[in-house]
Amino acid sequence: MTFGGRMADELSPADIRTADALAYVCANIDDIRDTLRDSGPEHMASLDELLTAAGGDGDLGPLLDALHAVVQAGGDARGVYVPASEVPTRGLPRIGPASVPGFGPPSETAFLCPLRRCTRFWLPRAGEPEPCCEINGVPLRKDRL
């Protein structure tokens, strides 16, 4: 798996933290907007600035730090740096026999961040349309596991 053109094993802990936080923002963008809506336009601007920058290849760490602070100031004590283990949309499940504890459903396809900047994923579900990126509206990137 790659993030921003680099293989996952080339990422620093800070890169992984950033990718996880961006995945959290993507998965919870409506809740974050609700939190910031009453905090003033300057707080909403921090979300907009992050979303714009996410389409490029620059360092998102400082923008996520700023958003984290305003989300906390808006009343969400956890901010955007929620541990990946607590967010079900991050970290692909292990694939294997469904009868073995700890293994997810067998699947050959996963849909991943089209920007290659976050760790969010979506596994195909019968009858559900393929999702789009919450940041730029582009369909998620289809990849084989």
Give structural notes:
The protein has 145 residues and is α+β, with helices and mostly antiparallel strands. It is built from four helices and seven strands. The chain has helices at residues 13-27, 29-37, 41-54, 61-73; strands at 2-3, 6-7, 94-95, 103-104, 109-112, 121-122, 141-144. Strands 6-5-7 form a three-stranded antiparallel β-sheet, with no helix packed on it. A two-stranded antiparallel sheet has the order 1-2. Helix 2 runs antiparallel to helix 3 (41-54) and helix 3 packs antiparallel against helix 4 (61-73).
Task: Describe the largest sheet.
Answer: 3 strands, antiparallel
The helix count comes to 4
Structure summary, number of beta strands: 7
What assembly state would you assign to the polypeptide chains in this entry?
single chain
Largest beta sheet: strand ordering: 6-5-7
Any descriptors?
145 residues, alpha+beta, two-stranded antiparallel sheet, 35% helix
